[in-house]
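Quick one:
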Amino acid sequence: MHFDPQMIYAIGLGIALSACCGFRVFVPLLAGAIAAYNNWFNVPTDMQWLGSWPAIICFATASVVEIAAYYFPFLDNLLDTTATPLSVIAGTILATAILPIQDGGFLKWGIGLLAGGTTAGTIQLGSSMLRLFSTKATLGTGNAFLATGENAAAVTGSVLSFLVPVLVAIIVIVLVIWIAYSGARQLLVLRHNKL
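Output:
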């Protein structure tokens, strides 16, 4: 069995960068657009728009607005309701653009959804639940600290995704498993308390 280092790099990059969409939707898209523009990874023909100047400008503007908006208490909770489906879409787009799958149809988009969209959505759900808890516990005053941590995770994770993609992908997979386990455990506790 032969392992292609470029394929392993691409898989790690696709998962790692997509997962960062769970912290902020547009920061990883901006990183992906800049990387595609500079040809840091092979972009499929149908995804060439990702590396265009209009995409870079659009994602840069959206990143600034999204980062700033999360510093307003209660608006951040409202944003989470739209950020969850958007993070799944963004993660799917990034994974589909990066993963080295020749089939450009259903298989590629399906794997993109599973590898990128699910990962991004799980992290977004975990962070939105944490923000909801912070809003209840601190009446929203602690949310700015949480937003700063998420912003740092999105930016740092996006940069590290290009430097050490496999390591970031492994950390992300562990984080996703932990979030899923914690969520399932909380549901069991709530269900048990109702009985």
